[in-house]
Structures are given as C-alpha cells and as structure tokens.
C-alpha cells in the first residue's frame, strides 16, 4: 500500500504537467477558435482583437498553473520552491503586460483602419507605461520595496527634467496637440511662417509635415504649439475656392453671371475634386480701374484639389467668354512725359 502511494505521488506531478499541457492545447486549438468565430456576430471588431490577444497566452497560463500544482507534490527545499514560485509569477506578469500591449496596438490599428490616422506618440507612451508598470509589478513580486525606487526616481527625475527641458517641453506639447484634436495625422495645415503640407506624424519630439513638393518639414512640437495654424481639414475637408474675375464695363452683367455659373457648374461636375452637388456663386464686388470685378465661389473636396479645379475653370471660362464675345480687360497705364505735359498745358492756355 505504501509503495502504491509512493508510486502515485511520483506519477502525479507528471500527470498534472501533461494534463495541463493537453488542456492548454485543447483550449488554444478548439475552444478559443470557436469563441472567435462566434465573436464575428458582434458589430464591434474590438472583441476579435481581445480574443486574439488572449488566445496566444491561455495555453501558457494553463501550463504555468500545472507547473505550480506539480511542484506542490514534489519534495523540494523551501528556497527553491520560493524561487520557482517567483519565476512563475514573473512569467505570468510578463504575459499579462504582453496582452495589454497587444490589445492596445490592436485597438490603435482598428482606429487607423477606419481611415483615422493616429500619432506615434500614443504608441510610444503606451509602451512606456506598460514597461514602467511591468517593472514595478515584477519588483513587488520579488519582494523588492518599490518605495525607495520611486523616491530615487523622483529625485533623479527632477535632475533629468532640468537637463532635458527642451525635450520634455516638446513631449508635453505633442501630447497637448493631439489631446486638443486641433491637429491630427493626415490633416493639411499651414503655419503662420508659410510652411504648409500634410501632417505625417506627431512623435515625442517633432511633428513631421510633408509639403506638396514632397519635401519633409520637421517642426519641434513646442514651436508648433506656439504657432498660428490654419487647418484645412477641420471641421471638414470640403472648402470654398474663390476665383477673382474681371469683365469690361460694356458687358451685360446678367449674361456674364449666367455664363460664369454654367461654366462653374460644368467644372464641378466633370473634374475630379469638385463637389458635384454645390451650386457655384457669382458675386460682383467693385468697380475696378479697368473693369467690373467679381468673385466666383466653387466648392472642392479638399485643399489639394484647388489647383486642378482652378486650372480647368480658367481655361473653360476664357474659352466661353471668347465665344460669347465677353471681353476680359487688362490694366492700361497712360504715361505722360514732361514734354507731353507742357504741350497739353500750352494747348489748354490757348483754348482758354
């Protein structure tokens, strides 16, 4: 009987270890895939991301649990038992942190998949937070007091903050830029210094802007936060395109307005980038030096469409005006020389 119990005690650890391994495979290969297929019915895609993240570690957790149960049946010294227990706890914490990072990255990818770009500063901050929390939890598991560590970090952090004032100001400026939602990756912006382009990314130090000429402009976040910025993508990408036009004084203004409207409507409906449902506007503004001036308001889908729309509109309008006999005046400057002025003065005296 004693031999039977001894054999059972020897076999039990192997049995628990093998059972845990097989249970983990069963969960990972059969149970979790079925749950993932069932989660497709949910409208929110985040469920599949969460399940996918957990599916990679469930088997690992079961194996860790079986190892923990196994060592309880093995006669080993207490220091070794404590060491193994701490190692298992550390491995478990690392797996939990890994899940957190995977879920965070998955949700970020889901956000960007919907056409919404996200600044890399969020990814970097997520990794940093996960790393710091993980280190503190591991230290706590190893029964290393974290209070002195936090105190040392506080004192050291003050010294580092003084040495890295510019870097920290850029970090907090970048977080402020993103949190305020005034600028997002993908937006087209223009600075008061003249630079303009698409926001590619907001990193922990710089904001990267790609100009229409395909050049990259690197702007420190602190300087960007203090600039006056025009964002052509907020609150909406659509924007008005104003084209100034001038016609001669002998033009029929009602006819000019009608023809200009027809040309503008045709351009918006046929040229890529125009808002097809928009009705062009024609507003006379002033009596100019050489003609009557007015503005044509068109509607485009985004900032970069203005160049092609304006190009085609001017070509088409010039051709149509020429066909209809509408004159586009050009400025005329009459220059009087000194002799001409004296001759006119003498002529005026003679006539007077």
Quick structural overview:
The protein is α+β, with helices and mostly antiparallel strands and 352 residues long.
Would you give an account of this structure?
This protein has 352 residues and is of the alpha+beta class. The protein folds into 3 domains: 2-115; 117-127 and 142-235, SH3 type barrels, CATH 2.30.30.60; 239-324, Alpha-Beta Plaits (2-Layer Sandwich). Helices cover 59% and strands 14% of the residues. It has a 5-stranded antiparallel beta sheet. The chain has a 3-stranded antiparallel beta sheet with strand order 6-8-7, with helices on one face. Strand 3 (206-210) and strand 4 (216-220) form a beta hairpin. The model has no long low-confidence stretch (mean pLDDT 76).
Helix and strand arrangement:
Elements: H1 2-39, H2 46-55, H3 58-71, H4 78-113, H5 120-141, H6 147-163, H7 165-179, E1 188-191, E2 196-202, E3 206-210, E4 216-220, H8 221-225, E5 229-231, E6 239-247, H9 253-270, E7 281-287, E8 292-300, H10 306-324, H11 338-351
Antiparallel strand pairs: 1-2, 1-5, 2-3, 3-4, 6-8, 7-8
